[in-house]
Write a structure and sequence with these properties.
Number of domains of chain B: 2
Largest sheet of chain B: 6 strands, mixed
Strand order of the largest sheet of chain B: 6-7-8-3-9-10
Distance between the termini of chain B: 35 Å
Structural class of chain A: mainly alpha
Oligomer: heterodimer
Distance between the termini of chain A: 39 Å
Number of strands of chain A: 0
Largest interface: A-B, 49 and 53 residues
Helix content of chain A: over 70%
Shape of chain A: elongated
Radius of gyration of chain B: 22 Å
CATH superfamily of the largest domain in chain B: P-loop containing nucleotide triphosphate hydrolases
Shape of chain B: globular
Strand content of chain B: 25-35%
Structural class of chain B: alpha/beta
Strand content of chain A: under 5%
């Protein structure tokens, strides 16, 4: 057999150190942080390329901001702010927070589906960092954030929304929303890893996102008519802090400590959710 | 010669199912080791342990001397896995799939693109390079999967049921491709449900049943242990089935089985030289055979001989189910 001839050549005197059978090639002992990030970026490229081939996967993030903006604006506008135009100024910055939450939900489902296919087996048998497929999934989800924010802002502007602050403040508002989005994506990843099937991911996601999205100052900046316990919840809710930050940074008014709280929350979410997600990933995949 | 793949006393349980019951296997540098067994015998579980995807409950395994548990990082730099369920990305094109793997292995963008083009050409996929993999045929997917495994030039290649689910043409194409890969000199662990496939490709076969190695040896040794082969003859004109059966009985010495539906006459023989004798006799009688073949025993017959019971098809171990892990 040819293989025996080959192996006679490929099998020199075993090296003095280590057991026999070690190959001639260089073998690294560990995978550095730099490589983990590079691998993560490659896998993010994979997710973005998938979206390029099937843009219909972006349908939810394209239609969601339009539907929500129209519904909330015309249902609540008159009652809450006296006119739809006045309400749009309060609502659109709030919806930046809400859309960041809703757009992150798709990630859990996508990840759960991915794991049920064989692709993750290949990733795990490659010499890449364990965390890379998850980091790649989260980074790749940037596309969904961009789409949802562009549609929301463009459609809102068409309905009459105008920024009242400096371009720098506006950029800061969306950057803050992006940071929060990246953090909340890790919760979505965790749900995707915990859920037994892709179908159940959405149900679980709604349960944790609803109180955060609606028990917040997303729809109203004035929360004084709410009962005390709800006011307390709204005050600690990170989505409220994000909505209030974006409001101040886009239409003006005091920013206060909302930005700091939003960033602290984002960091806290990552610190808790990332190691938990990695643990579930190791155990379940 | 250096041992490249080694496993000793591997055991693994999934809930109440015992998937591995103390498996010992080894393969030397450049060898092709085939794990032969029915569904649920534990073949895939062995592959998953050796490719660092699954921790065994007990026992140890190593690749090129690196422990699959404590030195998994090193092991992953030396192996490549081609899964039973082709693990390529459906939604990417062939080129994109290979570029992704190249990039993950640390190649530059330019090098990755060049390597992807080279591999697609080598695996006869150049025409389909820019098509999404979901439009590929089963055989094309397997070839792409194999190409993805080989971009990193692994020392050890795992082929988990590379031809299961392929039609006969896809299977022989895949064998051809695998044989080319084998000429490269990598050590290969192949799992299969077909003795014919193991016989075609392997230097050494380990027969797996209920998580145990029940027999092992070279294909020749194994076939010698099983002994018999199956002679199959079918007359072009089925009105001659009777005469064909008589002719076979005359040459072989025992009455063959006759299938009333297909007119296929089947007989177990121990001497391959009987085949030409049957051919000559049929020729003398002026009977034209539509089908005439000498087959290796099926997996069922192998199992019946080696273990005394037929291959148990429904003892499916949940080896791929992460919930069980």
């Amino acid at each position: 057999m040819t293989s025996q001839v080959t192996s006679a050549y490929a099998d020199p005197v075993p090296p003095l150190t280590g057991p026999p059978g070690r190959p001639g090639r260089e073998v690294r002992r560990r995978i550095g942080v730099g490589q983990a990030l590079a691998n993560g970026l490659t896998l993010a490229w994979r997710n973005v390329t998938q979206l390029k081939h099937s843009p219909e996967k972006l349908m939810d993030v394209t239609l969601m901001p339009i539907v929500f903006l129209v519904l909330f604006l015309y249902v609540f506008g008159g009652v809450v702010a006296g006119s739809t135009h006045a309400y749009l100024e309060i609502l659109l910055p709030g919806l930046v927070g809400q859309m960041a939450m809703f757009a992150s939900m798709g990630l859990g489902t996508a990840l759960c589906e991915d794991i049920h296919k064989g692709v993750f087996d290949r990733f795990r048998s490659l010499p890449i960092a364990r965390s890379s497929p998850l980091i790649g999934a989260v980074l790749g989800d940037t596309v969904r954030f961009l789409v949802v924010m562009v549609v929301l802002t463009a459609f809102g502007s068409a309905l009459g929304f105008r920024f009242h602050t400096s371009p720098l403040a506006i950029i800061a508002a969306y950057a803050l929303a992006y940071v929060f989005y990246m953090a909340i994506c890790w919760v979505s990843v965790l749900v995707g890893l915990v859920a037994p099937s892709p179908e159940t991911v959405q149900g679980i996601s709604f349960i944790w996102t609803m109180p955060l999205v609606f028990g917040s100052s997303v729809l109203l900046s004035n929360t004084r008519t709410m009962p005390g316990w709800l006011q307390a919840w709204v005050k600690v809710n990170p989505v409220s802090h994000l909505a209030d930050s974006v409001r101040a940074l886009t239409i003006g008014g005091p920013v206060g400590d909302h930005v700091i709280y939003t960033l602290v929350w984002a960091a806290g979410i990552v610190i808790v959710a990332f190691p938990l997600a990695m643990r579930m990933y190791r155990r379940r995949v | 010669m250096a041992i490249v793949i080694e496993a000793e006393g591997l055991t693994k349980r999934f809930g109440g199912t015992r998937a591995l019951a103390g498996v010992d296997i080894s393969a030397e540098s450049g060898q092709v080791l085939a794990l032969l067994g029915p569904n649920g015998a534990g073949k895939t579980t062995i592959v998953r342990v050796l490719s660092t995807l699954l921790r065994p409950d007990s026992g140890r395994a190593s690749i090129c001397g690196y422990d699959v548990e404590s030195e998994a990082v090193q092991v992953r730099q030396l192996i490549a896995l081609t899964g039973q369920y082709a693990s390529v990305d459906d939604e990417l094109t062939g080129t994109e799939n290979l570029i992704m793997i190249c990039r993950l292995l640390g190649m530059s963008r330019t090098a990755a693109r060049a390597r992807a083009r080279e591999m697609l050409g080598r695996f006869d996929l150049a025409d389909a390079a820019s098509r999404a993999v979901k439009t590929y045929s089963g055989g094309m997917r397997r070839r792409l999967d194999l190409a993805a495994s080989l971009v990193g030039e692994p020392e050890v290649l795992f082929l988990d049921e590379p031809t299961t689910g392929l039609d006969p043409r896809g299977r022989s194409e895949m064998w051809h491709t695998i044989r080319e890969v084998l000429a490269g000199g990598a050590t290969v662990l192949l799992t299969t449900q077909y003795l014919e496939e193991a016989d075609e490709l392997a230097d050494k076969i380990a027969v797996i049943d209920h998580g145990n190695v029940v027999a092992s040896g070279t294909p020749t040794e194994l076939k010698a242990r099983i002994g018999s082969q199956t002679l199959q003859v079918r007359a072009a004109d089925q009105t001659y089935t009777r005469q064909v059966a008589d002719a076979v009985a005359l040459v072989v010495g025992t009455r063959p089985d006759i299938s009333a539906d297909t007119g296929l006459v089947t007989s177990t023989i121990n001497d391959p030289a009987l085949l030409p004798a049957v051919v000559r006799l049929l020729d003398d009688l002026g009977i034209v055979a539509a089908e005439l073949a000498l087959r290796l025993p099926s997996l069922d017959e192998v199992f019946l001989t080696l273990t005394g019971h037929p291959a148990d098809e429904d003892a499916e171990a949940p080896a791929r189910d992460w919930r069980a892990a």
